[in-house]
Amino acid sequence: MSIPNDFDTLTSGLASIARLPFGTIVSSSSTPPKDIPRIVALYDTEQSNDCRLVRERITELDLAVETIIPAAPNSRAVTDDSYEYYLEGATKEIPRMVVVDEQGKKVFVGSDDVLGYFTDVFGPRAPVVDDTEEELKKKVVEVLLLLGENLASLLRYGRGGAVADCAKSPDTPRPSKPLVSVSLD
Questions:
Q1: In angstroms, what CA-CA distances link 74 with 77, 86, 157, 168?
Q2: pLDDT at 165
């Protein structure tokens, strides 16, 4: 692991291209609920297919995430129980999303749980190929989508899955707060 370089920038761009159009457009087909849930935290890692699917759906639904917590296996979120954003409980499964809505605070663990919540609140994702298309075209698109998903992970293999040694050096102070993607203030 090292500090990101030009190769990381290239592979990150290629991974995004492999997943087009997901994560690049806001869906016009979903009907937003009256009260949009507030996503207060998203535990995430760069190289995870499951995390990527959650990030893409958040973009598609045009939602704001207050705090994104890097949750690589050797990160503070996993190893330091004094850390404000420590993942409590026996399972450290990610993605993990914390939502506050009219019914209170809810925690969703795993991509199936998070994406299921989005489907319940916003409705299903619009199909890439509609039902009027012939079966062969549907199958080809399905295979291409699966290939793109795995190609994106392959291009980013090993990146974002662990905290780099240089970031844990005593000479490099770690930030006390995680990255804020969008300021809602």
A1: 8, 12, 17, 10
A2: 58
Residue of 110, 82, 108 whose CA lies nearest to 176: 82
Bridge partners (DSSP) listed for residue 3? none
Taking only Cα atoms into account, the Rg of the chain, rounded to an integer number of angstroms, comes to: 18
Distance CA 44, CA 161 (A): 10
Distance CA 48, CA 117 (A): 19
Task: Read off φ and ψ for residue 91, nearest 5 degrees.
Answer: -95, 140
Tell me the C-alpha distance between 2 and 180, whole Å: 23
- Per-residue pLDDT at 53: 86
pTM of the predicted structure, to 2 decimals: 0.65
> 101: part of which helix (H) or strand (E)?
strand 96-101
Q: Could you tell me the pLDDT band of residue 107, with boundaries at 50, 70 and 90?
A: very high
